[in-house]
Write a structure and sequence with these properties.
The chain is α+β, with helices and mostly antiparallel strands. It has 7 helices and 4 strands. Helix 2 packs across helix 3.
């Protein structure tokens, strides 16, 4: 009985041990398979993570490049805005300058027939003569220089004779004296006839209480030369000399000076030069704006000769 019980116990123990061994092997097999699967899954996950990290790095680099491009674009937009603002400022300045030029041109065109007296000179003649005397050549030379410097300047010549003789004779004599001055300027210096206007004033009538004397007769035998320039030319000259000088009105003709020497009246005293305005014979045409140099007398309503 005891032997049978012991055998049963021994057989049960062996069975339990065999079963335990079989269970351990199975478990080890299952654990190995599970570990293998986990290892594969971890490897796949690590691979995916690396790929994700690489793509994230590429995305960051792309974002950085895009940021740089945007910064460059912002800089170019700022430069374009600054250039547009500068262009707008220049356009405003150009518009203002054009309006100013238009206003000045309108003013000049409105004053195209206004002239200012620049200087008055006198050329004297011997009794009954129409020839230019040597002592008066310098006066005509100065006048010729002034006319050559400003093509818009003009001369007004008024010929006179003394009170002796008939009115008709004195008118002819005064006319010939004015023509003698014109011929001298045209032939010697090439002055254009459009710049010279001459008229015969006939004999000089003595004032109340004035007596006939060799001196009064000598002063009567003359040609008054009035040098005039358009207001635009004079304003340009004054703008170069004294920009703040006030505008002046036309000055009256000063009293004629006495002649230096007169062949018909020997021993005459040295003449007294009348007060004259300061001369502005500088080339006014060189100071005119370019667009005004192209304007002809015909454009201003005058005759184009």
């Amino acid at each position: 009985m005891r032997r049978r019980l012991a055998s049963l116990i021994l057989c049960g123990g062996v069975a339990v041990l065999g079963s335990a061994c079989a269970t351990k092997s199975f478990v080890e097999t299952q654990v190995g398979a599970t570990e293998s699967k986990l290892t594969q899954q971890m490897s796949a996950t690590e691979t995916k993570l690396r790929e994700t990290a690489d793509r994230a790095g590429e995305n960051r680099r792309a974002v950085d490049v895009a940021d740089q491009r945007l910064n460059g674009l912002d800089l170019r937009v700022s430069e374009a805005g600054a250039r547009a603002s500068s262009a707008e400022t220049r356009a405003d300045l150009a518009t203002g300058a054009a309006r100013d030029v238009e206003a000045r041109l309108s003013q000049r065109l409105a004053s195209r027939n206004r002239y200012r007296l620049l200087d008055t000179k006198f050329v004297y003649f011997d009794s009954g003569q129409t020839e230019i005397r040597g002592q008066d050549v310098n006066e005509l030379e100065d006048v010729a220089k002034a006319l050559a410097a400003d093509p818009n300047a003009i001369l007004e010549l008024q010929g006179y004779a003394d009170s002796r003789g008939s009115d008709r004779y004195n008118r002819e004599l005064a006319r010939e004296r004015g023509e003698a001055v014109v011929r001298y300027l045209v032939q010697r210096h090439g002055i254009e006839l459009r710049q010279v206007r001459a008229i015969s004033m006939g004999k000089v009538v003595l004032g109340a209480g004035e007596k006939v004397s060799p001196e009064t007769l000598a002063r009567a035998r003359r040609v008054d030369i009035r040098l005039l320039a358009p207001w635009s030319s004079w304003e340009d000259a004054q703008g170069q000399i004294a920009p703040t000088a006030p505008e002046q009105t036309v000055t009256p003709i000063p009293a004629p000076r006495e002649p230096a020497t007169i062949s018909a009246l020997p021993g005459q005293a040295e003449p007294v030069q009348p007060p004259q305005e300061s001369r502005t014979y500088a080339p006014a045409r060189e100071r005119l704006p370019e667009f005004l140099k192209t304007i002809t007398p015909k454009d201003l309503g005058g005759e184009d000769r």
